[in-house]
Amino acid sequence: MIEVKNVHKSFGDLHVLRGVSLNVTKGEVLVMIGPSGSGKSTLLRCINLLVQPDSGDVFIDGVKVNSREVKPEWVRQQVGMVFQSFNLFTHLTALKNVEIGLTRVKKVNKEEAERVARFELERVGLADKADAFPAQLSGGQQQRVAIARALSLNPKAVLFDEPTSALDPEFIHEVLDVMAKLADEGMTMIVVSHEMGFAKSVADQVVFLEGGTILETGTPEEIFNHPKTDRMRSFIGKILG
Amino acid sequence: MVLVALITVLLNDAGIISLAYIESRLTYFIRPVEIGLGATVVSFVIGFAVGIPMGVVRAFGPSLIRRRGRTAAIVMPLYGFVSGYVQAIRGTPVFVQILLIVAVVERLVAPGTLGIEFWGGVVALSVNTIGYQAEVFRAGFQSVGQGQVEAAKSIGMTPLQTFFHITLPQGLRLIILPLTNEWIALFKASALLWYVAVQEIMWAGYHLEYIDARPIEAFLMVSFWYLIIMIPLSKAITYIEKTKRIPGLGSAAEPARKRLFGGRTRSDAVDASR
Fold first, then answer.
1. What is the CB neighbour count within 10 angstroms for residue B221?
2. Nearest Cα to B79, choosing from B98, B59, B95?
3. How far is Cα A58 from Cα A48, in angstroms, rounded to an integer?
4. Is A91 on the interface with B (CB under 8 A)?
5. β-pair type (A14-24, A157-161)
6. If you compute the radius of gyration of chain B from its CA atoms, what whole number of angstroms results?
7. Which residues of A touch B145 (CB under 8 A)?
8. Which residues on chain B place their C-beta less than 8 Å from a C-beta of chain A?
9. Are β-strands A29-33 and A14-24 bridged in parallel, bridged antiparallel, or unpaired?
10. Cβ <8 Å between B154 and A83
11. Are B270 and B185 within 8 A, CB to CB?
12. Which of B25, B94, B97, B128 has the fewest Cβ atoms within 10 Å of its own Cβ atom?
């Protein structure tokens, strides 16, 4: 489904990704953990080409996407993204936020777009907030709208970039619940998150990134309960508190 | 307003000014008001239409140039021109710009052509307001957050779609206030067109002073007509700002009355820099 092969990325002198490879099959949930600055967000952005890899390959459904023949806009319609800071369009209502990709990008007619948008809002439990502007919603609600927006284009996979780390603790679970439900429904997901509960119960694969390379990879059970390296052990110790 | 009326009446009773005279001459200004307002409106609309693309070049030029290649080769001279233009307009007095540009227009078009003064004035005001509005738009576009742009990209929008559906509508809402200030400054700057024989409000004041030798009344009437136009207009813009306001986006409207009668405000600062 999503295959990353030996990807390198530098910003100026900063070598952020030093040859990262991973493979996510259809319906699988991969959780990425690691200290800040380890390249998690950059790796995620290399997959939907918000960041162009310097070298290496990214395949989505067997199509090499970081090539001149493939439009980045097309890639981003295949893979949705959810951001740490929600990034809902502030001048649009919740409904319009979900609709706009359909009407403007996929050129779906208005009635159909609204029908899909209302369905997606229903799916994240916010049908009654359709007419609210982002500033009138709580962080948790905003993030759920953002998930609905990412789902509106019927993507093959969704990338989550620390979706709960900007949230007040009381709102974290409602977002994680929506994500768990999504995983249950068979959505392919790559999640950057330090929510251990979520990773343990939902992830099929956990990847530990440090210094731009994958230090360890395995099932949640292997990573959290039987870490192989000392570095991994101490990191787990820290995030579990 | 009440205070101004009261002072006017007191001055009348003291025999310093004559209200009867003012009453007899007030309608003399109707045509000049049309001309002054017309020149400002036409220039402002031109400034808006040209200011947006110039603001785009100013806001996004540097990042496009950094990408190198063919785009950069096109954008670089464009960015240089626009930046130079803005600097030139902001760095010289509007009065000098009017004299210079009207002289150029008259050189290009046969002198004595019907309406040449008016259209020369419109060109001069347009050239001026384009520079200021370009900067207003630049600031507006740049204050739309990077996260908004990234989110637009993430749902597959092209750079043009992102601009028209996200950056432009958000940017326009953010600049209602500075754009209002520019409108006020431009309308007041239009008073300088009397010097190049455009028969607008200030011209009418000078003309009346010349034929009737009543300078205080003449310029009181000039002031009156400017205020009569500014007050409802500012109210209208405040109203637009309220109705178009999106929760959590942009600034709350500053009361229009304060801008007109209060002490120094941002629009005065713009004025002083002209």
1. 21
2. B59
3. 9
4. yes
5. unpaired
6. 22
7. 87
8. 145, 147-148, 150-158, 161, 165-166, 169-170, 173, 246-249
9. unpaired
10. yes
11. yes
12. B25
The DSSP bridge partners found for residue A22 are: A4
Q: How do residues B13-39 score in pLDDT, each as one tens digit?
A: 888 888 888 888 888 899 999 999 999
Tell if the CB–CB gap between B161 and A76 is shorter than 8 Å.
no
Answer yes or no: is pLDDT of B252 > 60: no
Residue B48: pLDDT above 60? yes
Question: What is the reported pTM?
Answer: 0.84
Q: Are A213 and A191 in contact (CB under 8 A)?
A: no
Residue of chain B whose Cα is closest to the Cα of A74:
B156
Q: What angle do CA A2, A161, A8 make, to 5 degrees?
A: 55
Q: How far apart are CA A14 and CA B204, in angstroms?
A: 67
How many Cβ atoms sit within 10 Å of the Cβ of residue B176?
Answer: 19
Which regions in chain A score pLDDT beneath 70? 241
Q: What is the pLDDT of residues B192-244, one digit of tens each?
A: 999 988 899 999 999 999 998 888 888 989 999 999 998 888 888 888 878 87
Name the residue among A50, A104, A150 with its Cβ closest to that of B161. Answer: A104
A89 touches chain B (CB under 8 A): yes
pLDDT in tens, B124-161: 999 999 999 999 999 999 999 999 999 999 999 999 99
What order of strands is seen across the sheet that includes strand A14-24?
A: A14-24, A2-11, A55-60, A63-64
Start-to-end CA span in chain A (Å): 35
Give the pLDDT of residue A85: 95
CB-based contact B205:B37 (threshold 8 Å): no
ipTM of the complex: 0.92
Residues of chain A with C-beta less than 8 angstroms from the C-beta of B170: 89-91
Strands (E), chain A: 2-11, 14-24, 29-33, 55-60, 63-64, 79-82, 157-161, 188-192, 205-210, 213-218
> Which amino acid, residue B116?
I
List chain B residues with CB under 8 Å of A77: 155-156
